[in-house]
């Protein structure tokens, strides 16, 4: 067994070669397992593994994009006593003012197929419906509509989430 196994990166200067950690395994099949965890990778890179005089071929790592919101609809239904029509709020123009007793419908289209979608508010976490794989929606009752920050947390079928999920305020 080699004394140490290293991972080397390209482009040069991205980070120096790093020694990989040997992983304790059970059984005879996986006695020589080494690993190195990557955190906060922001751009593509190449790497190879070497130990002693042996080296692997260069391997290219391409990053998968996280899910983003392609289209977003925010629709407020005012309380019945106002006799006001349903109003569409312009996305990205919040914080928004709505009357107490209103309903809020959120619907959107993601750039990728979704595994889950949640709306996180100061009142709790609300699962959103997913249809056509990349469409999501939810309707909040007057009791669920609270003042504060609303965060749209999307998780795609590859397990990726947006590091900075989109949000708006009411």
In short:
Helices cover 0% and strands 45% of the residues. The chain is mainly β and 170 residues long.
Care to describe what's here?
The chain is mostly beta strands. It has no helices and 16 strands. The chain starts with 5 loop residues before the first strand and ends with a strand.
Which sheet architecture does the biggest sheet show?
Answer: 5 strands, antiparallel
N-to-C span: 61 Å
* Number of strand elements: 16
Helical stretch tally: 0
Order of helix and strand elements from N to C terminus:
EEEEEEEEEEEEEEEE
Q: Give the uncertain stretches in residue-range form.
A: none
Shape: elongated
Query: What level of helicity do the residues show?
Result: under 10%
Approximately what portion of the residues adopt beta-strand conformation?
over 45%
Name the structural class: mainly beta
Q: What do the pLDDT scores average to?
A: 89
Rounded radius of gyration (Å): 24 Å
Write the topology of this structure.
Elements: E1 6-10, E2 18-19, E3 21-23, E4 33-35, E5 45-51, E6 54-55, E7 59-61, E8 69-77, E9 87-89, E10 103-110, E11 114-121, E12 124-127, E13 129-131, E14 135-140, E15 149-156, E16 167-169
Which short descriptors sum up this protein?
170 residues; mainly beta; 5-stranded antiparallel β-sheet; 45% strand
């Amino acid at each position: 067994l080699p004394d140490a196994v290293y991972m080397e990166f390209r482009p040069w200067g991205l980070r120096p070669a790093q020694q990989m950690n040997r992983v304790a395994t059970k059984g005879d099949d996986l006695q020589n397992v080494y690993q190195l965890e990557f955190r906060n990778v922001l751009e593509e890179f190449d790497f190879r593994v070497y130990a002693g005089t042996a080296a692997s071929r260069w391997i290219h790592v391409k990053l998968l994009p996280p899910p983003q919101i392609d289209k977003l609809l925010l629709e407020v239904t005012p309380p019945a006593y106002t006799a006001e029509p349903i109003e569409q709020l312009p996305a990205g123009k919040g914080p928004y003012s709505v009357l107490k007793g209103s309903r809020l419908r959120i619907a959107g289209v993601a750039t990728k197929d979704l595994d889950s979608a949640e709306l996180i508010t100061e009142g709790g976490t609300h699962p959103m419906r997913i249809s056509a794989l990349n469409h999501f929606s939810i309707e909040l009752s007057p009791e669920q509509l609270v003042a504060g920050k609303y965060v749209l947390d999307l998780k795609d079928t590859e397990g990726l989430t947006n590091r900075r999920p989109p949000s708006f305020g009411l």
